[in-house]
Design brief:
By secondary structure, the chain is an all-alpha fold. Helix content is 71%, strand content 0%. It has helices at residues 4-19, 31-42, 48-69. The protein is flat and about 40 Å long. The protein starts with a helix and ends with a helix.
Length: 70
Amino acid sequence: MPSMHVGYTFMFALTLIMVLRPSPWRWLALLWPAWMLFTVMATANHWWLDGVGGATTVLLGLLLVSRLAG
């Protein structure tokens, strides 16, 4: 806990969403962390709450960086 497999892919999906801003297809990037969550659960590496913890860790890190950067 937390699953940084899911956190890492969630971070990259958020980056893709920001980079692909004019495209309406940018939200498909969220399928990557969803698939990673399914994969780590199917292989019995993590529970679903570990994936939520990984995504929360990334969001808290982004919040901290945005506050410190101003």
